[in-house]
Amino acid sequence: MAKKRKRTDAPAEAAGADKPDDSAPERPPRTLFGFTEPAPDAEAAPAEAGSAVAPFRNKEKVLITCSRRIAYRYRHLMQDILSLLPHAKKDSKVESKQSKGSALNELLELRSCSSCLFFECRKQKDLYLWMVKSPGGPSIKFLVNAVHTMEELKLTGNHLKGSRPLITFSTNFDEQPHWKLVKEMITQIFATPKDHRKAKPFHDHVFAFSIVDGHVWFRNYQISVPHNEIDKVDKGGLDKMTLIEVGPRFCLNPIKIFGGSFGGPTWYENPYYISPNQIRALEKRQKAGKYAKKVKAKVRRKMHEMENTLEPDEFAELWKGE
Amino acid sequence: MVGLAREEALAHDEVIMDDADSDVEVSDSEDDSGEEAQATPSENAIYNKVAILEKLEDIAWPKNVDWMHKLTIEHDQGGKVDVNDDLARELAFYTQALDGTRQAFEKLQSMKVRFLRPTDYYAEMVKTDAHMHKIKGRLLSEKRRIEEAEERKKAREAKKIAKEVQAEKNKQRAKDKKEQIESVKKWRKQRQQGGFAKGNDDVPDLNFEGEEGFKQSKKKRPGVSPGDRSGGLAKRGKEGKNRRSRDAKFGHGGRKGLKKQNTAETTNDFRSYKGGESQTKKRKRS
């Protein structure tokens, strides 16, 4: 476990620089290699913040629930995500009648959670994920595809339960405002708070969120790097680093962004989104169209034959007598 | 702005979009996939960038938050990744994660934070030990299957080669035999022609030294004489490991059809004939 901190003030480790400091800037800590400079971020902070801002504490709490009649695969996905986020609380299943609007907001207040991941499963086939920030925050509805849970034997990695993840985003999250919002919400929900009770001290897994073809793809990898000490990688070890997939895997297709939590004005609609019901209906219609097309083709052929009659065949009578 | 007008119209709570939308235009036979038809009709979708950015400002963490809280890295994806090519897509994700981790580790190392898990640190893992055991079992069985397939392939190849070698050997043997017979004939002819006056030339000039000496014929069963039809199995004195139990279970093996031989013993053996005369008489009647 992490060693007990002797400092009793701000819990954040680098908060030493954030601490209001009236005296001259303190000497950088001395190490074996000489004086190291503190991170430039920390240097800028006291200059800007002065003594007014309290050190930042991430008090994020996520509520994870699902609707009733959820399929087993999606339930396992929900459980996997629960195990990945130590700052998450699981709640019992929500009736589908209640899942609109107010009931879920009340639940969030009751459990004093600041965000919510709500898995809604319709017709036991389609999974929708709501990412919601609690008090009046925006909410995003996604359609979840390509689900692979951690149970799959092909995903062989493993990591500490509760260790803080490194989160990587692809740069196309910064291109458009709605992606920026998605990125911010993902960061707030999926990043384990630094001093959470259940958080473990080491960093041994990494999340990868990327946007490909208008969908957000999620992968979770275990980091394996040769090392002998716990705060330094072996020489050249960074090149020998390998990632092993732990799971789960899913792909999110954003449908709409709402201004309020679980409702409110629509701020964004995905123009390329087709609901799974429509896709199924289209397929059925295409299949049904096959027979109708055949009949039409037959009728057309008949008309064509009637219009252009063939000349009488000279050889038709040839074998008649025999 | 279109966005604002829409916003007023939809001020009430939105119902989850579930039923078939009316802006889907699908012409019956001309369309091959409805998804392409969808791309253009919904271009009038709502996109309220201003409100989104405002809300973003509201909920975002303060700008000067220490990186240790967020632990986020950005990575440039490079070119467009083809969604349908699984390998390329997964490779893109892998390189993104790898690159991000490298950057993060460099940062963490410079911050002198303890971030690498020591090997003796035992704590609850996200997958149970039983599950990891199953994974290991599966990996091992896959490896074994691959190895067996390779061995089988190799055995097949070796058999093919062995067959060819055997064919060659047989050919060689036949040739040698023919040669030997030919040489004996030649010698005899020579002797005839020479009128047996060549002196004590009993031994034919068979040029023994040229053939690497007299090769011992490599018989497969050294104890078996060529005229023995039972293949050396007729007289088997000592029993091997639990031979008696095996004989009792699977029957006595090895006596190669000696019952059907036409030898002195069998001609006078009338054990199998039971009332033979009456049988023949019966057959003649029917």
UniProtKB/TrEMBL annotation, chain A:
Keywords: Nucleus, Ribosome biogenesis. It comes from the Eukaryota. Signal peptide: none annotated. InterPro entries: Brix, BRX1. Its main location: nucleus. Residues 37-51 have a biased composition (Low complexity). Residues 1-51 are annotated as: Disordered. It holds the Pfam family Brix. One of its GO terms (molecular function) is rRNA binding. PROSITE patterns: BRIX. Residues 60-263 form the Brix domain. It is found in: Nucleus, Nucleolus. One of its GO terms (biological process) is rRNA processing. Residues 16-29 have a biased composition (Basic and acidic residues). GO terms for cellular component: nucleolus. Belongs to the BRX1 family. This is Brix domain-containing protein. It comes from Digitaria exilis.
Automatic annotation (TrEMBL), chain B:
It holds the Pfam family Ebp2. The keyword Nucleus applies. Residues 16-35, 202-211 have a biased composition (Acidic residues). It is found in: Nucleus, Nucleolus. Residues 260-270 have a biased composition (Polar residues). Residues 1-15, 155-185, 236-250 have a biased composition (Basic and acidic residues). GO terms for cellular component: nuclear periphery; nucleolus; preribosome, large subunit precursor. Keywords: Coiled coil, Nucleus, Ribosome biogenesis. It comes from Digitaria exilis. This is rRNA processing protein EBP2. One of its GO terms (biological process) is ribosomal large subunit biogenesis. Residues 1-42, 155-286 are annotated as: Disordered. Belongs to the EBP2 family.
